[in-house]
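Hi C.,

You asked whether I'd gotten around to modeling the 286-residue construct. I have! Everything is below, sequence then structure, no commentary in between.
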Amino acid sequence: MNNQPLQTPDFRHDYLELMQRKRLYSGLILIVFVALLMSGFSLADSRNAGSFVDGWRNVFDFPASVLSEASAKVTQLPGHLVRFFPALVETVNIAAASTLLGSMGAMILSLLATRGLARWPRLIPLFRRIMDIMRAMPEIVIALVLIFVLGGGPVPAMIAIAFHTTGALGKLFSEVNENASLKPIEGLQSTGATWGQRMWLGVIPQVAPNYLSYALLRFEINIRASAILGFVGAGGIGYELKNAMSWGQGKYDEAAAIFLLLFAAIVLFDQLSGHFRTRLVKGAKA
């Protein structure tokens, strides 16, 4: 019988070499990233009308002008808040309608793109690519095209945000669908239920809390998006803010009032949706 000690590999040495190699690769990637960042900044600065190095000191000039004029006309602030409140309501309505439409489209596409649930399994890659395209297109690009076709107003903004929301939520919904139990679906199928009935009765009750949680999160994002689209003529409080800022000196008090309304609305809906998301996911006692 051989009594020689077994030769064991030096795992510690191999592990240290692996970690050293990993740090080396990470350092090289970081160097390349910083080099690309600096070269991109240098190129953008050279093509800009003025140098960033010379102009960064003026960054706070506009906020200072807005605050000084708003403080001088502070007595007019309540009137401005009342005046621009309907525009804020329009912005929230755009976000709510687009979130609702986008959620409905995302629910259908996600079910069609989930393995084990899809109505046509061979078309799963097609539906996934459709969601990728919808998610990749920025809202502002879609809105600009629709404004050219339909004219300015809230409808192009709603369609643009709903289109992007469908792709974004569809990806999240499909991941939720993959965790759904297939037993209720198999039971419904054995009774002769149609695909729509199996999805509505067997899948939706399982995933509804997560669906609502993601939809509320998207609603917060869409409020900001609808405000931004107002700058390109899509209506809402963003359009009023653009007009106030375009007039320049003399209208900065109105811009300050719009900023306050928009900030208050975003904070309010962030808190409300966060509260409801917590209750939906973790239960009423969370």
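If it helps when you're writing up: The longest helix spans residues 11-47.

Thanks,
B.
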